Amino acid sequence: MQAADQPAIIRLFRVTRRYGAAKALDEISLEIPASAFVFITGPSGAGKTTLLKLLYLGLRASEGQVIVDGMNLARMDRHRIPMLRRRLGIIFQDYKLIATRSVYENVALVLEAAGAPRRAIAARVNTVLRTVGMEERRDALPPSLSGGEQQRVAVARALVGEPRILLADEPTGSLDSASAAVVMNLITRFHQRGGTVLVATHDHHLIRSVPARVIRLEAGRLAEFHHNPLNP
Amino acid sequence: MHLHLRKALQDMRNNRFLNAVTIVTIALAVIIVGAFSLFVVNAGDLLNTWRQGIRLMIYLDDGIAGEKRAQMEDQLRRMPEIERLQFISKQEAMDRLRRQMSRHAALLEGLAQNPLPEAFEVEMRQGVERKVEALAQRIEQIDGVEEVAYGKQWIKRFGSLVELLRIISYALTGLFSGAAVFFVANTIRLILYSRREEVEIMRLVGASERFIRTPFYIQALLQGAIGGLAGIGILYLVYLFTAGDMAAALGGFGFSFRFLPWTAVAGAVLAAMVVGWLGCLASLKQFIVSS
Ligand SMILES: Nc1ncnc2c1ncn2[C@@H]1O[C@H](COP(=O)(O)OP(=O)(O)OP(=O)(O)O)[C@@H](O)[C@H]1O
Ligand SMILES: [Mg+2]
Fold it and tell me: What integer pLDDT is reported at residue A38 of this predicted model?
C-alpha cells in the first residue's frame, strides 16, 4: 500500500454537523490520501452515514471545511453538485435503486446523466454488469431481485462511471457471508486499480478482512484513527 | 435529446391515463375556442359580403339648385371610396317606385305633387366596404344632404354582434388556456409526485436539474401538440360534414363558408404547446421548491 505518500484526496477540517441542537458530528478533522482504503466504524448513531453524506453533499456541514478531490464543498454552488457526484461512486445503505427501471437502466442512468454517447453506454454497462455477475438479469426490475443481487447492482452503478472515490455505506449490512464476500471482492478490486475507498460499517469481521485505515467515530467525535495492517 | 425524447415517451406510456386526460382537456379547449373562432371568422366574412352589395342613397334637401347640385356631385366624385355615382331626379325616383309597386301603382296617381326627394345613388369601390359607416357619416355632413340611407341599422347590429362574439372568443381563449395550463400542471405534478424517489436517486448519481426536467418539458410539449392537433382535426371533420348545409342555409349571398386560415391552425397548435410548457413550468417550480 503506497497510500501514505499520496496527497490527500479528502480533507475535513473541524467539521461539525448539527441536527437541531444535537451534534451528529463534532469538530472532525481528518485527511484521507488518494488510493487509500478506509473503514469508518462506530456504534449505531455515531455519525458514519452523516460523514459520508457530507462528502457527496447529501448534507452540508454546519461548520468547518470539507474538501473532496480538490473541491471545496462548503462554497460549492448547488448547480455544481452533479459535477461532484459524477466523480464519486456511492453505495447507499438502502441501495436506492429505481424500482420502476430495469437493472440495465439503473446502471446506465449514471452515464446518461454524465452525457456519455449511447453506444459507449451500452458497452460499458454490459461490461460492468458482467463483472458483478448480473448480466443475465439486466432486464429485471430491482424489487424482483434478492438483497445480494440488488447490492451487486448498486455496486455496478457505483463503479460504472469510473469514479475516483467510492463511498459505501454498510455495503454488506444485510447480506449473507457469500454475498458479502462477492461485494467486498468487487470493492477491493476497485481499490487495487487505484481507487480511493471509504466503507462505513460496524462489522468487525469485515474490517479485519482487508488491510486498511480505520476511523472510529463515537457519538459524533473522532475516537480513533489507526492503521490495520492485518492481512486476512 | 434522443434520450430525453425516449424517456418522455416512456413516461407517457407509463402514465397513459393522466396523459390521456390532459390531452383530451387540451383538445376540448382547442375545439371550443376553435369552433367559436370559426364562427367569428365566417360571420365576419358574411358581414363583408353583405356590405359589398350595399348602395348608398344620398337624399338631397328639397329644391336644390342645379349649380349647387353639380358642386356636390363634384365633391362626391373626389371621394376615393366611391366607384360610381348616379343622379336620380324626382321623376326617375317616381318611375322606380311605380315599377316596384307595379300593380298598386294606381295609388300613386292621386298625388298632387311628387313627394320623393332628389338623390345620388352611390356604389362603393371594392375592398373599402368596411368603411361604409364612416363614409355615410362624412357625406351626411355635406351641405344640402338630407339623409344618407343604406341598410345601416341591421349592418350595425350584425357588426356589433360579430364584434361581441370576437371579444367572447378572446375571453374563452384566455379561460380555456388557463384551465388547460392548470390541467397540465396537475398531471405533471402527479407524475412528479409518483416519481419523487426516482428523481431523488437521479440527483444522487449526478444528474443535473436540466437532465431531470427535460423529459417532463418534452412530455408537456407533446401533450400540447397532440391535444392541439387532435382538437383541430376533430373541428375540421365537423366542419367538413356541416359546412355544406350551413352554406346552403345562408345561400344566395355568393358566400362560401371557410375553415380557419392555416395561420390560425398553426397558432392554435403552437398555443396548445405553450400551454403544455407553462403547465410544466408551474408544477416543476413548485416541485423543486418543495423538494
Ligand atoms: N435527518 C436527521 N434528523 C435528525 N437527526 C438525525 C438525522 N439523521 C441522522 N440523525 C442523527 O444523527 C446521528 C448520527 O446518525 P447517522 O445516521 O450518521 O449514524 P450512523 O453512524 O450512520 O448509524 P447506523 O450505524 O445506524 O447507520 C444519530 O444520532 C441520528 O439520530
Ligand atoms: Mg448509517
Answer: 94
Tell if the CB–CB gap between B205 and A79 is shorter than 8 Å.
no
Please, are residues A192 and A2 in contact by the beta-carbon 8 Å criterion? no
* Structure-block grid coordinates of residue A58: 447529501
Contacts of B71 (CB under 8 A, 6+ apart): none
Phi, psi of B114 (to 5 degrees): -75, 115
Q: What is the pLDDT of residues A20-69, one digit of tens each?
A: 889 999 999 999 999 999 999 999 999 999 999 999 999 999 999 999 99
Q: Are A115 and A173 in contact (CB under 8 A)?
A: no
The predicted pLDDT at position B151 comes to 67
Contact between A109 and B204 using a beta-carbon 8 Å cutoff = no
Contact B198 A56 (CB under 8 A): no
In this predicted model, what pLDDT tens digit does every residue of B179-233 receive, in sequence order? 888 888 888 888 888 888 889 999 999 999 999 989 889 988 999 999 999 999 9
Distance from C-alpha of A162 to C-alpha of A114, rounded to nearest angstrom? 12
ipTM for the complex shown: 0.90
> What is the model's pLDDT at position B74?
86
Substitution target in A52, A68, A81, A84 with the highest count of B β-carbons within 10 Å is A81
Domains of chain B: 2-50+155-290 (no CATH), 55-150 (3.30.70.3040)
Of B2, B14, B205, the CB nearest to A157: B205
pLDDT of residue A1 exceeding 50: no
- Sheet of A37-41: strand order equals A88-91, A165-169, A196-200, A37-41, A212-218, A221-228
- Written as nine digits, the cell of B129 is 366596404
Is pTM beyond 0.80? Reply is: no
Quote the CATH superfamily of domain A1-87+196-232: P-loop containing nucleotide triphosphate hydrolases (3.40.50.300)
Ligand 2 ion local residues (Cβ < 5 A): A 49
Q: Across the interface, which of A58, A85, A92 has its CB nearest the CB of B206?
A: A85
Top mean pLDDT of A217-221, B50-54, B80-84 is at A217-221
- Tell me the CB-side half-sphere exposure of residue B188, using CA atoms within 13 A: 34
Question: What helix, strand, coil percent values describe chain B, rounded to 5?
Answer: 75, 10, 20
Cβ atoms B154, B54 nearer than 8 A: no
Amino acid letter, B240: L
Using DSSP bridges, classify how beta strands B55-60 and A221-228 pair: parallel, antiparallel or unpaired: unpaired
Cell numbers 338623390: residue: B119
